[in-house]
Design brief:
single chain, alpha/beta, Metallo-beta-lactamase, Chain A, 8-stranded mixed β-sheet, two-stranded antiparallel ribbon, 10 strands
Length: 149
């Protein structure tokens, strides 16, 4: 399994029919929030040329970070909404995708879902998944693990 955070967040959004509900633009920041039937996807800038994504299920309060490019912006986005991080969904092992895992696990106690083929490189993986596996994220959301790109 190897998909980008943008592709995963976009796929989740398209599958669930998410529509934009807000957008704000600042000097270096651009955030976008999408919502549908109890699921919210927050997009925010990380590093100099990357984005972070949070997927939040309003019914259960479960929140997943799609990759962990930078801890500060993830914590800021969680704090902004009053959400608690419950999961990290890693797409692969590169530092701009899994580099914030250890600190976020330490600070939040969240669980990590990652490709079985890269679990050893990512470390701290609670659920190793392969193409076609499925896992639940929240009360109404079931996310499919896609095969590689």
């Amino acid at each position: 399994m190897r998909i980008s955070g943008i592709r995963l967040a976009t796929a989740l959004g398209a599958t669930l029919g998410l529509q934009p509900i807000g957008r704000s633009v600042g000097v270096r920041s651009c955030s976008s929030v999408h919502s549908s039937a109890g699921l919210v996807v927050e997009q925010f800038p990380c590093l100099r040329d990357n984005y972070g994504f949070l997927v939040h299920d309003m019914a259960t309060g479960m929140t997943a970070a799609v990759d962990t490019p930078e801890v500060g912006p993830i914590l800021e986005a969680l704090d902004k909404h009053g959400w608690t991080l419950t999961h990290i969904l890693n797409t692969h092992h590169h530092a701009d995708h899994a580099g914030g895992n250890a600190e976020l696990i330490r600070r939040t106690g969240c669980k990590v879902v990652a490709p079985a083929s890269e679990a050893g490189k990512i470390g701290h993986v609670d659920l190793a998944v392969s193409g076609g596996d499925r896992f639940e994220l929240g009360e109404y959301t079931e996310a499919a693990v896609l095969n590689g790109v």
